[in-house]
Design brief:
The structure is a single chain. The protein is an alpha+beta fold. The protein is built from two helices and seven strands. Helix 1 packs antiparallel against helix 2. The longest helix is centred in the last third of the chain and has 21 residues.
Length: 137
């Protein structure tokens, strides 16, 4: 019986950048980004795209295996077969721990008030915690 065909996409360049550092520059086979309105999958030869990001899990498949990061919003651009992700925070999955969740819970508990700013802060922290939980469990 003949071997099953391989449907692996050719790699494309990807960069993950925060204000402090270039966190990752790699050749990526596929990416799944947490866009503001849902998860977005990206393969090579993707039409140009700019997307607003939300707090969530960035999943990258490289030749050496999968990589995951918690990111906190920002923007992604796919242009000329290169994905650039600009975010305020990028934490490798293995560095998100139950202690991280506890710290986020303390921030959430410290928010007082029912004004629009407090509600927005509370909602943002709840989104962060939900994404982080998927990495801890």
């Amino acid at each position: 019986m003949p071997a099953a065909p391989s449907f692996t996409s050719p790699p494309f360049k990807a960069s993950l950048i925060t204000p402090e550092a270039v966190v990752l520059k790699a050749s990526v086979i596929e990416a799944q980004i947490p866009a503001f309105d849902g998860l977005l999958g990206i393969l090579d030869k993707r039409a140009p795209l700019t997307a607003k990001l939300s707090a969530g899990i960035l999943r990258l498949t490289t030749a050496s295996g999968p990589q995951r990061f918690f990111i906190d919003g920002g923007y992604a651009q796919m242009k000329d077969d290169e994905l650039t992700i600009l975010t305020t925070e990028a934490i490798p999955a293995e560095k998100v721990t139950s202690d991280s969740l506890t710290a986020e819970q303390k921030k959430l508990d410290a928010i007082q008030g029912v004004d629009a700013k407090s509600l927005a802060q509370r909602s943002h922290l709840q989104s962060r915690m939900q994404a982080m939980r998927t990495l801890v469990e």
